[in-house]
Amino acid sequence: MKVAIVTGGSSGIGRSAAVHIARRGNGVIVTYGDNRQGALDAVAEIEEEGGTAVALPLDVGETGGFPAFRASVAEALGGRWGRDTFDHLVNNAGFGRAAPFEDTTEELFDRFTRVLLKGPYFLTQTLLPLLADGGAVVNTASSSASAATGLEAGYSAYASAKGGVVVMSRYLAKELSGRGIRVNSVSPGPTRTRISDDAFERFPEVLPALAARTALGRVGEPDDIGTVIASLVSEEGRWITAQNIEVTGGYDL
């Protein structure tokens, strides 16, 4: 059985990706930050469908904790699946927040880069000794970093970090290709998740305008993205690497 690690798997896109990866016959390690119950619920959903999963805590913004996390992963692999390696890494954990350029503080800018870019970069590096040859990495970026999407005021720092994720993914695909490891990124458009402190729940009035800007006529759902991530790490994605897949339903098309 192959095993995947999905960071930020307690809700939204990460939880959807974890469930769909498990449905394809893989074991899943789900990580969580402050939403432990959400991660346990994801594990329960996977196990109810006959899959196997483990939930582990991880703060992707604190690289100092990565060696201890690697040790926890090694313990979970051996104890749950009788393995000393895993096969797929989905770097999905993150956060979003609108901040006008004039009001963006160094503290917020540093948090964006630490959580969204530095975290995935060094987590992948830390876990690389446990990642099996022929494996796959998928990094969650954002359509906000795409030249094909209309720009939204207030996302200069967020989109800059996510743009870095796209570039990082392409270079990792080059550097890890000798081991047969594929690396891609996915760039969701507006998706109904808990991002920005449950902004879509707090401000539902924005949904019709976002849907009107989307060619397929609605706002994205986590499963729209999670199924693509599951496909990319599977055998179906075996000939795809160094790509950024925009999963937006035609946002601003």
Automatic annotation (TrEMBL):
Pfam families reported for this sequence: adh_short_C2 (PF13561)
Keywords: Oxidoreductase
Segments crossing the lipid bilayer: none
Molecular-function annotations in GO: oxidoreductase activity
Domain Ketoreductase: 2-193
SUPFAM superfamilies: NAD(P)-binding Rossmann-fold domains
InterPro entries assigned: KR_dom, NAD(P)-bd_dom_sf, SDR_fam
Gene3D superfamilies tied to this protein: NAD(P)-binding Rossmann-like Domain (3.40.50.720)
Family recorded in the similarity comment: Belongs to the short-chain dehydrogenases/reductases (SDR) family.
The protein, known as: NAD(P)-dependent dehydrogenase, short-chain alcohol dehydrogenase family
